[in-house]
Protein: DUF3667 domain-containing protein
Organism: Prevotella communis
Amino acid sequence: MNLKEKYRVFKEWQQRPYQVAPLTQEEHTCATCGTSYQGNYCPRCGQSSRIGRYSMKTAFLLFLDVWGLGNRGMFRSIRDLLLRPGYMIRDYLGGMHMAYFPPFKMFFLLATLSILVNSGLNIRGENQLVKVVQTYERSIDMDIRTVPAEQKAGVKSGTDNERLDFGEKINGTLKVFIRFLIDHQTVVELVWLLVLSLPLYVLFRNCPAIPDLYYTEFFVAMIYITNMMNIVSIVFSFFCVNLDTIGFISPILSIVALKQLCGYSYLRTILGLVASFAIITIAVLIIVVLVGIVVGLTMAMNAQ
Ligand SMILES: [Zn+2]
């Protein structure tokens, strides 16, 4: 089989919805209640027919189950999120809930795992969160260090000192803000998803693959896409690869996922994403200008 043929088979696999294995005619007797039945679960008490001797696999699945991981295709969900994200999300939104791990549960479990990996559970055992905070703080301190140099040169005046005080105040606020963002990553991520999904939904809700998409469905899709990106970033964090050097991976992954989900061309998907970011940037600028005008007016009124 040549490469082209392999790719065609892969594409076909990507688009095929998950298939549940057909029911066997095999007769089971439930070990808990003694009922005889055909199928995967006892109709009387709900015990799985696959429970047999206490094997390593049973033990491992029960161990995972403590964190709510041992069921509902967690491994399948991770594989599909990496290899066919958009098609998998379509399956899920189409009603195949038992086939995939629930999106919000996955989101919070990944958030927990991400904190564990970033704070020391990685191959070097180093706290990467502290490093990120330090890098930001250093870059904030950089621009204030230029001011004292001017002062040494003899341009010390009242206005310069005022400017220095003001600069320090701004930098202090920035540091608190960045600390807050890093300490509350999960909430920040959720709020960001809510903001980003508004313009995206307007631009993608009439897409060819799911023509009557609800906003809530689109938001669930965004959570799954974020889960996919979080899985990738956790793997890189585990191997202590600097995320800045592979920063291009996240946008590419999200474009592929969104394209598979909506059924638009790559060009239309990218344009939709760019337009959404532009709309958010303009909205933020307008808010900043409005706040600036209000603050300016209040200060002017107080001065009088
Ligand atoms: Zn039973």
About this structure: The two ends are 83 Å apart (CA to CA).
